[in-house]
Known about the structure:
- The chain has helices at about 15-25, 45-55, 70-80, 95-100, 100-120, 155-175, 195-205, 225-240, 260-270, 295-300, 310-320, and strands at about 5-10, 30-35, 60-65, 85, 125-130, 180-185, 185-190, 210-215, 220, 225, 245-250, 255-260, 275-280.
- By secondary structure, it is of the alpha/beta class.
- It has a domain at about 5-185 and about 225-255 and about 290-305: 3-Layer(aba) Sandwich (Rossmann fold), CATH 3.40.50.720.
- Helix 1 (about 15-25) links the parallel strand 1 (about 5-10) and strand 2.
- Helix 3 runs parallel beside helix 5 and helix 9 packs across helix 11 (about 310-320).
- The chain is globular and about 55 Å long.
- The protein starts with 5 loop residues before the first strand and ends with a helix.
- The protein binds nicotinamide-adenine-dinucleotide (NAD).
- Nicotinamide-adenine-dinucleotide binds near residues 14, 37, 38 and 106.
Amino acid sequence: MPEHMRIIVTGAAGFIGSHAVKALLKSGHSVLAIDNLNDYYDSKLKNDRLENIGKSNSFEFEKVDISDHIKINKLFDNYKPMRVLHLAAQAGVRFSIENPFSYIESNLKGHLSILEAVRSSASVQHLVYASSSSVYGNDTDVPFSENARADKPASLYAATKRADELMSESYSSLYKIPQTGLRFFTVYGPWGRPDMAYWLFTKAILESKPIKVFNNGDLERDFTYIDDVIETTVKIIEDKKIRDGHRIYNIGGSRPRRLQEFIDLIAKACAKPAICQNFPMQPGDVYRTSADLTKISKDYDYQPRIDLEVGIPHFVDWYREYFEL
Ligand SMILES: NC(=O)c1ccc[n+]([C@@H]2O[C@H](COP(=O)([O-])OP(=O)(O)OC[C@H]3O[C@@H](n4cnc5c(N)ncnc54)[C@H](O)[C@@H]3O)[C@@H](O)[C@H]2O)c1
């Protein structure tokens, strides 16, 4: 059994956050969960995820915006966490074209507010935060290595995520705060995100509606099943060797898959055909993502275990059950 820890998790009502909270509680830790429950997508799903975490004396929830640094500081002062898992963000590449300022509030101001709270805290020993594969943009050699410059983001979302990494780097060098940034590659699974392709495609196929296929399906993604992400994130949080400085890791799937292959697997799991409508490439999208997993495999023995062939049916089964279809 790992040593018991008090952990603050931001973005706890989100897809990855709610799974992380459940896993940390199961591991015997205490969690203060933070989320502003915004309506970027249906907040009923966020409330249902919190309910699914279940009641426990080790679990508290605070509805608060991470960009409110005064409130965040107070929560840190009172709770005295040993670890922080910072996942709250305005996610999504396409929405950053419609609503750019929400990315500045949540991803830049919000990230700074967490860094400041950690800096003032005497208890936090390690800050683990979410970055994204989107920082690699369209001109990084594949597979994407953490050593790539990643200085040509294709969207504002990617630019804010890369800026978070640079802000973390500066705080780590100024204030010696141990930090780990995780570049997630297209995470999917039960309790997932309604704005992501796997959800939109499943919904459309089950409703016999056409699906929008961008760039004629000529896109590749490294898909990562939620359990693989959570297992390794918890391992990093529980890591007792507090490593100095700031490290960044890719967390991806086993291999990039073509969009068409992905659609075929969803259609198979739904036992219905996909009606595909082709659209041009979307602004801000990248052509492919592909993770070099050498670093995370070496330091944390990470090996993605769940392939799309297994993970997609798990998601579709959950979706049908959730919506009683
Ligand atoms: N899911 C993926 O494929 C993926 C890929 C790369 C990176 N990420 C990153 O991982 C993290 C978690 O992503 P997710 O897929 O669970 O997204 P999500 O949108 O489901 O979860 C994010 C949560 O943060 C909350 N939030 C947003 N702004 C906030 C604010 N200002 N104050 C308090 N709470 C706020 C939202 O209400 C939401 O519940 C994000 O940082 C995201 O950028 C996710």
